[in-house]
Amino acid sequence: MSQAVAFVEVDWAGRMVRIEHQWIAPERKSTPLIVFLHEGLGSLAMWRDFPQRLCDAVGCRGLVYSRPGYGRSTPRAADEAWGLDFMHQQAHEVLPAFLRAVGIDPVAQPPWLLGHSDGASITLLYAAQFPQALAGAIVLAPHILVENLSVTSIEKARTAYLETDLRQRLAKYHDDPDSAFWGWNNIWLHPPFRAWSIEAEIEAIRCPLLAVQGLDDEYGTLEQIHGIARRVPHTELLELSDCGHSPHRDQADRLIATASAFITQQTGDKP
To answer: Which part of the chain is the AB hydrolase-1 domain (predicted)?
Structure first.
């Protein structure tokens, strides 16, 4: 069962930030650990029951958290803008600091990472930077470069935030919805960000990798996961029909079946 939501403080670039997190089935002490990384507008709560369902299917532990700026974690200051390297900072600085703060030594007991969208890109960057500190990775709707489709959809999201009830709906999941939305939206629509790419960096990935994309994803094309497979040839791909940008919502059963089999295959017959 999941524990109650808890908080831990970490030092990020010289300032303390509070990170909301929740353990799933921590009593399964000898089993693999899956750490879940949410999308650009996501949070711990927005995963709903997917982490619990996947951990139960695998028979393992889970850890879900909200990045700074999201959920109940420390909001982004009103005058703080994410930089072009914001996902690198999350992968190289925040995630390692968070793991240390909750008592995880990723070298001694390498976790699995499962990331969605921006969280998937952060997962890829962590996997490339810390190959000795990761058992494997699953990425849902990852970004390795900026596509016109992504920018067009993010522009539509800006209009929706300003003109519809999107802000009110996000307020259910974020203490400061403006922190979450504008941090994400402003950097993705910042003209220099069009040149953002992690295509070369991910070639360093050595861990088992499953890359998943919905065929109806409004934020990215199949080039994202095909590009990963070209650069990381051992990648396994899952293309889901009748599926948009959130495979864990649109095709949860099929995703859980494939992901649990992938993890079990890598860890052996027993968790």
So the answer is: 34-257
